[in-house]
Structures are given as structure tokens and as C-alpha cells.
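User: For a reading group we're discussing how well predicted structures match intuition. Take Adenosine deaminase. Before you show the prediction, I'll give you the sequence so everyone sees exactly what went in.
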Amino acid sequence: MSVPSPPTLEAIRRVPKVLLHDHLDGGLRPATVVELADEVGYGGLPTTDADKLATWFRGGAHSGSLVRYLETFSHTVGVMQTPGALARVARECAEDLAADGVVYAEVRFAPELHVERGLALDAVIEAVIDGFRAGSAGTGLKIRALLTAMRHAARSLEIAEAAVRWRDRGVVGFDIAGAEAGYPPTRHLDAFQYMQRANGHYTIHAGEAFGLPSIWEALQWCNADRLGHGVRVTDDITVDTDANAILGQLANYVRDVRVPLEMCPTSNVDTGVCASIAEHPIGLLRRLHFRVTVNTDNRLMSGVTLSSEFAALVDAFGYGWPDIRWLTVNAMKSAFIPFDQRLTLINDVIKPGFASVCGDG
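Assistant: Thanks. Here is the predicted 3D structure of Adenosine deaminase, as C-alpha cells, for the group to look at:
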């Protein structure tokens, strides 16, 4: 019997992967930012050298502050204000994910951020969907959109309505994002209730920079299907000197009902949630069998791919192919497409893809 090859970065790129938490405006190619800035007349870039610009974005991301991290998006959003720019960014996003071996992706964007030049919300959505379709054509990637509302603004119901309106045309769900402190998810309760009445799916950024109250509201008041990040659930877990974990009521609930956690390790290090990948809560939560998934968050700002995120976990926690497969199947189970489509991808794509490196199904 052949011995499986180790999960190196190159080997991880070759296996099928699933991505649930990736921001369109956080994944641009640096050269594209420069070219679009010139094309649309955006003059705010700190440099027009693509390599230096990539370094600048990563420097801002590594500040250890979520607020500072979010400030870098003013430049990517600034160049994404025309149908052509939006379609190009979406197309390149799909191409880059397909090249990294991603077979299913839900990429989120906030339509309300792309109307500075007069575009209607539907025009923004249409351009992005067209770009996804063009970029994924002929690849093994199935890519869908999540529409995000900004939690500090007041357009969440409008965005939720758009998510339902576009649900059979490439959009699979709704989300809220932005700084958590001072902007609890219950501010947008009407939007979440609308999604529930429409039998829609939604995820909520919660438990990233703010703690247990954010997670509790997202689940118990807003009934989120998934949690964006959710790392602060470990605030409700005590580990004793013998490494035994004692779960509080909220942590027990999250694990018991299998709430999917969209974890983004490198991004969390960048924003100061933890000091290193080795200290990231994903290690404990995976050991305790929470419904953990692995994601990129913002590929440009953090300088990552989904493959590199898995490779970092291999280095930090000694994960092998069974761990990577377990995390991948978790993500596919938690996707917002219909059950039969999820099952087909698991049985016909993911399991055979991992069998080729793991030696089993």
C-alpha cells in the first residue's frame, strides 16, 4: 500500500477545497487595483507600484487592529465603482480561486459600497454575478455570492430584499459586516426576520473583535445559520491544567446544534484576535469537534490563499490529510446551496479528490 504524500502547500493546492468566507473587495490583485485606479480616475492610492502596493496593504492588515484593517478597504472599494471594474474583479476572483483548487466558494460583497458613481444596487449585483460566471467558466469551480450589509449603516433590509430577489441568479445568502463594537446584530433584526420569512440563508460576522454577547445575539435573537469568525466562543470555554475543556452554556449550544464557524486564522492574527496561528482558537475548537471551517477572509490584505491557510495549520498543529478533509467536508456541509448539490460535491468531487492523496475514500 502506498504511503500518502505529506500535506505540503503544493499538494494542498491539488485537492478540492471549499471556501465560505471571502470578501470580494479584500481579494483584488495588486496590479488590478493600480490599473483600475488609472482607468476610473481614482487618485487616492499610496503608490502605483503593484509590488509596493501589495506590501502596503499587508502592512495595514498586520496592524493588530480591526479598525485599521478595515481602513485599507477604502482603496479597493474606491476602484470598484463601475460595472466593468466590478465584473473584472469578480472574474479575476473566480480565476484565482479555481487556480488554487477551490471547487465551491461563497464570496461576499456589500452592494451599498459600490454606488458612489450612481450605480443601482441591482446593477452592482449583476456586474459581479456576470464576472463570477465568466471567471469560473470551464473550471471546476462553482461560485456563488453573499450580499453583505454594513452594520453601521441602515440599508440592511434593502440588501436582504436584494438577496432574495437574486437568489436564483447566483446569490445564495445574506450577511452583515463591519466593526462589531457599538453595532450589535439586533440593529438589523428586521432584515434577518425578512430572510427567515423568505426561507433565505444568512451568516453574521460575530465574535471576531467583540465577545460572547455578539455571538449570543447573532444566534438567539437573529437566528444566524452560520457565524463569520466566531473565534470568541472560546471565551466560554475553560481549559484546566490537565487540558480538559469545560464548556459554558453558549459554547455547548454552538457545538451541540453544529453552528458552522467561518474561521479565518491569518486574518485573526492580523487584527489582533490572537498572536500567532499556533495560538488560534481553531486548534482547540477542532479538537472539541465544533463545526469549524477554514477560510481566507481577505486574500489581498492578509497575503493568503485557502491553500496557504491550510498549510499554516499543518505547520502550527501538525494537521494531516484527514484533518484537512474533515475541515473541507465541514465547509461543504455548511454551504448555502441545496442539500443535493452539497452531497454531490462531497461524494463526487471532494472524497475522490482526497482519496487520490490519502489513499482512501
